[in-house]
Amino acid sequence: LQKKLGHFSQAKGYDGFCPVGPWIATDIDTSDLRVTLSKNGVIAQMGDLEMVHSIERLVSYLSHQVTLEPGDLILTGTPQGVGPLVHGDRVEVSIENVGTLRHSVTE
């Protein structure tokens, strides 16, 4: 869908497209965390949480554009290895010292 539409926002913005939770970790050092994503038991993405801009800079920039409220999420990107997901895929994403989110893709 992303290739067909030619942009990210609509292709990534449908209901159910952003599983999160069940908690938000607030007391961790985000400067050195490993992110791993497995699709159907095979590692598809792995990388350190390397950010182009600091969290402080992102919050400052965005707060000049929109009102940020407690609980708002700022989505920033993903390690190399992005690929399509289809009905029935099982996805696990883990962030070191935070936890693992598991879900299945449904239509």
Q: How do the helices and strands follow one another from N- to C-terminus?
A: HHEEHEE
Give the CA-based shape.
globular
Radius of gyration: 15 Å
Q: List the uncertain runs.
A: none
Could you explain the architecture of this structure?
The chain has helices at residues 2-5, 8-11, 55-63; strands at residues 34-39, 42-48, 90-95, 99-104. The protein is built from three helices and four strands. The model has no long low-confidence stretch (mean pLDDT 84). It has a four-stranded antiparallel beta sheet with strand order 2-1-3-4, with no helix packed on it. The protein is globular. It is of the alpha+beta class and 107 residues long.
Please describe the topology of this protein.
Layout: H1 2-5, H2 8-11, E1 34-39, E2 42-48, H3 55-63, E3 90-95, E4 99-104
Antiparallel strand pairs: 1-2, 1-3, 3-4
